[in-house]
């Protein structure tokens, strides 16, 4: 085995070990991933304060305080609003159920010519009660659920304390850690890795900041638009549509369907349905022609199908952490694929022409085919 092949196999094995360790530790990596994202977002501002003559610790303390104040302010603003919207939804829930039973299901049955008992909710509930099982199994499931819920609460409380602590130390030592990682890289690949890391940093930074602004703008627009239309739970639907807008068309579809049902239940006329359609149509035009081109700018180059695949694949492999990091990881993968494609275009596999013997044989075959071509009735005889 040559030296180059041995080096390639070593790099491949090291990469496989790192990927396997990340996959193995995925269940406990979520707080560290969130802390890393906060540190990554705060590092440019901390570097700017350092360039103004401030020490790293003081700069990080100011950035961390600003992030904490913004987060607490958002919570103080959104928690009462969300609580009020959830109470409003729970109060109107019987009306939604009555609308589904009395209007939606009969309309579907009539249009699809289904058996009237197909959507008999009373019969469905009776069947569920019949097959529930013994009281003991129900009690066992209840105890297990309570235990899981208790452990989930403890886990969330631990993460709530762990994330800001880890984020502070990561932000303080960010540049030092990057320098250590750069010194640990093999010298043969260090220039290439540094260049790709800088390109990934530019793409990732533009994407994260732009996508967060797009989500915020869409959430505010849909919430205000539905509130002006008169939908009682309009702000809640707008927030959900904005949060889910990082997946192409997901926020639009869920928000649009929810707003249509709310308008039909609350008013029962076509005027409010048309107004809801107008709000979401303007929102889609605003997203496609103003927000995304200006804030994100198409620097990632991901097709919507690729975005959906990345989110689904990340959720399947790493759960919620995978969904959270799917698009940032996909943006980095795009940079790597561009590099691989450029190397392929420069490789012998792409650049080498066909062998000369094959080219000559092709020319001879073409000349023979032309010579043996039968002449038509109007052609002159040879």
Low-confidence stretches: 131-140
Strand content: under 5%
Average residue pLDDT: 76
The gross shape turns out to be globular
Class derived from helix and strand content: mainly alpha
Along the chain, the helix and strand elements come as HHHHHHHHHHHHHH
Largest sheet: none
Cα-atom radius of gyration? 30 Å
End-to-end C-alpha gap? 64 Å
- β-strand number: 0
Proportion of residues in helical segments:
over 70%
Compute the number of helices. 14
Short description:
This protein has helices at residues 3-24, 26-51, 56-112, 121-130, 135-172, 174-184, 190-229, 234-243, 250-266, 270-296, 304-318, 320-346, 348-351, 356-371.
Task: Give your account of this protein's structure.
By secondary structure, the chain is mainly alpha-helical. The chain is 84% helix and 0% strand. It contains 14 helices and no strands. It has helices at residues 3-24, 26-51, 56-112, 121-130, 135-172, 174-184, 190-229, 234-243, 250-266, 270-296, 304-318, 320-346, 348-351, 356-371. Helix 2 crosses helix 3, helix 7 (190-229) runs antiparallel to helix 8 (234-243) and helix 8 (234-243) runs antiparallel to helix 9 (250-266). The longest helix has 57 residues, at 56-112. It is globular. Mean pLDDT is 76; it is low at 131-140.
